[in-house]
Amino acid sequence: MTVNFSKTAVIGAGAMGRGIAQIAAQAGSEVLLLDSFEGAAGRGRDAILAQWRKLQEKGKLDAAQLEALSGRVHVAGSMQDLASCDLVIEAIVEDIEVKRALFRDIEAVVSPSATLVSNTSSLSVTAIATALKHQERMAGFHFFNPVPLMKVVEVVAGFKTDPEVCRKLAGYATQMGHSPVQAKDTPGFIVNHAGRGYGTEALRIAGESVADFATIDRILKDQAGFRLGPFELLDLTALDVSHPVMESIYRQYYEEPRYRPSVITAQRLAAGALGRKSGEGFYRYPDGAMQQVA
Ligand code: NAI
Predict the structure, then answer these.
(1) Distance from the CA of 119 to the center of ligand 1, in angstroms?
(2) Are 66 and 88 part of one and the same domain?
(3) Residue after which a domain boundary falls, among 184, 214, 233
(4) Which parts of the chain span the membrane according to its record (predicted)?
């Protein structure tokens, strides 16, 4: 089987970029990781190799497979190294102007036939694409956290996206072992639109002192069957990602009251209590294990 994109760049080696790079390599692509933060791409590569070593320990990969996969993931020194990539996946900070500036820089180095995608959770793919000369080659390619486990991928067509680009991306998602779903370019697409109420209503319940965070999480898991409670999910996603997403969807829907963000997350974001990644959020994470805050 020929992989749809033989050389994939992933820009942004954070929680999402690492996971995307991992499954892109597993699909058979050569992968380049680029990050503007010193050392972050190298740490991203190390984290991916650690995931594969765990799979080897569980007997899911043999030594030859591990070696082949490891040889496929490289750290890019600069944007110039991306010149021969046929796909560039952006997974940087959720800020439209920063993303638009990045896409302008990407287009200046890649070939005119390269496909460019954003992993944005909430921003308009159409609006990001206007930074490009060739808007038809740009789409949304939206993964979920943790990427190797969460199998849905939203393929989002912007106003000018060539349908062939979406078809090729959907095929690539399948080659990654994931399930593509076509989504329209509306704020939050499908999952983050439908899922709005889960976080915002739970924050209102907590804000009105109806119940505390841990009780709300426990009840929604035990009674409603969710795998993660809303506050556990906010901790996993991290507030520096999810609060801007809440604000962005609220603004894009013309301040629809149902989507109003919460002062609880705004204050916690300001305090740096981001979730798992900062060691404290709605729960504490000493040595990675979750602990309830008294
Ligand atoms: P993160 O904060 O873990 O990682 C972002 C990375 O991008 C960092 O390593 C940072 O150094 C790098 N970066 C920032 N600006 C850059 C630039 N101009 N050039 C190159 N690198 C740059 O964030 P995370 O969670 O990986 O999110 C990334 C994107 O994925 C956001 O658009 C977010 O909305 C989206 N997303 C996040 C999900 C989540 O659950 N965390 C789920 C689905 C999408």
Answers:
(1) 9
(2) yes
(3) 184
(4) none
